DNA sequence: AGGCTAATGACAGCCTCTGACAGTTGACAA
DNA sequence: TTGTCAACTGTCAGAGGCTGTCATTAGCCT
């Protein structure tokens, strides 16, 4: 189970953060709790899984679970949180010349891979994607998901306002564009989760397609189908 | 405590649905629970109010509360539900020629009064508006609010799809427009709830203003401020 | 008036989450 | 190596949301 060096040379690690046995154990317990939780959630359902079940599957007490995660819900969204932060970084990295909606669309397009990597470091990507469908079909989880999405949008709206040199408290447009972007994302997730093919690639393609349709859907004429 | 006539002439009531003493009592208990709940929520906070508190304020047992409302949350949103159904009716009543976004905007504009009336029949409108601010500042309530908004959007999207003669499962545009509309509504609510003037009139004006800015915010140039 | 049924209250119990206390184990210095 | 300190953990007790059960009450109907 040991991973670090033979005896105990803490100065060999880079100046970054130097794991330490205790830290390693903690991280392993956390990841184990996370995996146990997501597996149970996807197999038997979120509501049907008690915290005691998760704790037992990870061989810790219920009390310990709550020391790692403030709530059952927080455990459920821990991985999503990782993914989202990657997207935020990508938005930050966009060149300032682009129109806001374009910047968001392109940031998303180029962060899919980074997101996949981040997820894989904690739980199998496939498990995460399967759990995403559980979110959509579980009212309590969907509610939490939407609230978290709103918070994320607020954060991104500030970034957009900064890019455009606008005061977010005086000009509503940054929030409006981001809200529109988020709305399309949610519609996409919903449709994706109802499909048979619920892989990452399918979600990526759907998202790209729908984002391209925002402007025409709002302004253009509605004559003629366009699956 | 008695309210009805002296002895018992049930045939005096209109043919509509003939209340009956039992029905009346039920409705009064429900309204009392609703008022007690909203008052406690606004005075001391949602999380700080227990179901026992509400039941006690309405002089019923906790068990009875749960027979009227499936959850504390359901009680919190009961009045909002009334308001929303009025809006849906207004959308239905819009002439078929209008562009979807216009239909939504106009339906909203003309349903404010009806909404006010519907609310007043259960609790004071002012109490409802005050509670709306509690929703925005209480994570658990905000989450529930957003989930409910999503369900409402799905319903409206079907209406829009019907108006335009589109298959909602083959054309994403109805959902997209409605999602955009809903997104703007939520941004408006949020900004409104953070203001000092949180009356109904202020919300109505803010909504009208923001909805007019959707299209320019997405397509137009972003040069020049426009509070 | 008397029977029928809906509505209520009074437990008992499950689940999420928290505080308190004590036991265990890694980290670090003597 | 050993002892001390701090972090991590388990156990216990309890609050609050929510549900099932059962006896009692109260409206309704003949």
Beta-strand segment tally of chain A: 0
Tally of contiguous helical segments of chain A? 9
Low-confidence stretches of chain A: 1-17
**Top CATH class of the largest domain in chain A:** Mainly Alpha
**Could you tell me how far the N terminus lies from the C terminus of chain A, measured between alpha carbons in angstroms?**
53 Å
Order of helical and strand elements of chain A: HHHHHHHHH
Which outline of chain A best applies?
globular
The whole-number mean of residue pLDDT values of chain A reads 87
CATH architecture of the largest domain in chain A: Orthogonal Bundle
The CATH superfamily of the largest domain in chain A is known as Tetracycline Repressor, domain 2
Largest interface: A-B, 39 and 38 residues
List the main descriptive attributes of the protein structure presented here.
227 residues, mainly alpha, Tetracycline Repressor, domain 2, 2 domains, 70% helix, DNA-binding, Homeodomain-like_sf (chains A, B), DNA-binding (chains A, B)
